[in-house]
Amino acid sequence: MPRFPVFRAQSGVSLIESLVALFVLALGILGLAGLQTRTLTETRLTNARAAAVRMTTDIHERMLLNNGAMVDSINNATPFPYVVGWGGVPAGTNCNTTACTHAQLAGFDLSQWKNTLSTVLPGGDGLIYQSTDDPREFGVLIAWTDNIDDKAIGDLADYTNPFTVSVTTNVGNAACPANMICHLTRVRP
């Protein structure tokens, strides 16, 4: 009697099918990791912008509370003491312990504001300029570093491109410094 081969049902998964399944799983995990990285980056940028808005509000409120500085500036035809360029501001008089003039209070406010900016935002700095069209309008430009590797992020590199503010100011260059992110707000104390 001739013997016929016996066919058995497949009882396991072949090695190739296992490798294909692992490859598809790895692609999915890499996609999720990329999405998580992008989300963390966007969250950090959003938090920095929120801090810049809070710092703009802070200096605006300081200007409002020192309304005598604006009156002195208009009456005496002197520069508004809250106008400041990039870089640090000397501490000056401590107005928490000593009675200060309006100009001294402005210097104290700016010193505290700039120190807080450098603490709250990485590499944070600020510039305040007076509008040439309206003496009661001021621009507050806040800059900070990004700390993102442009080569690793790719299309997020456009966040660090500087932009130029198209205004003539009395403190010189009102452009966002190179390799920094900026937030510009106009205020009227």
Helix content: 40-55%
Number of helices: 4
CA-based shape: rod-shaped
Side by side, the strands of the main sheet go 1-2-3
How many strands?
3
User: How big is the Rg?
Assistant: 29 Å
Query: Distance between the terminal alpha carbons, to the nearest Å?
Result: 108 Å
Percent range for β-strand residues: 5-15%
Domain count: the total is 1
Mean pLDDT: 80
What sequence of helices (H) and strands (E) makes up the elements?
A: HHHEEHE
SS-derived structural category: alpha+beta
Account of the 3D structure:
This protein has one domain (14-187). The model is unreliable at 150-168 (pLDDT under 50). Helix 1 runs antiparallel to helix 3. The protein has 189 residues and is α+β, with helices and mostly antiparallel strands. It has helices at 15-65, 67-76, 102-120, 150-153; strands at 125-130, 138-145, 180-187. The protein is 44% helix and 12% strand. The longest helix has 51 residues, at 15-65. The protein has four helices and three strands; from the N terminus they run H-H-H-E-E-H-E. A hairpin with a 7-residue loop joins strand 1 and strand 2 (138-145). A three-stranded antiparallel beta sheet has the order 1-2-3. It comes from Hydrogenophaga aromaticivorans. This is Type IV pilus modification protein PilV. Keywords: Membrane, Transmembrane, Transmembrane helix. The chain crosses the membrane at residues 12-35.
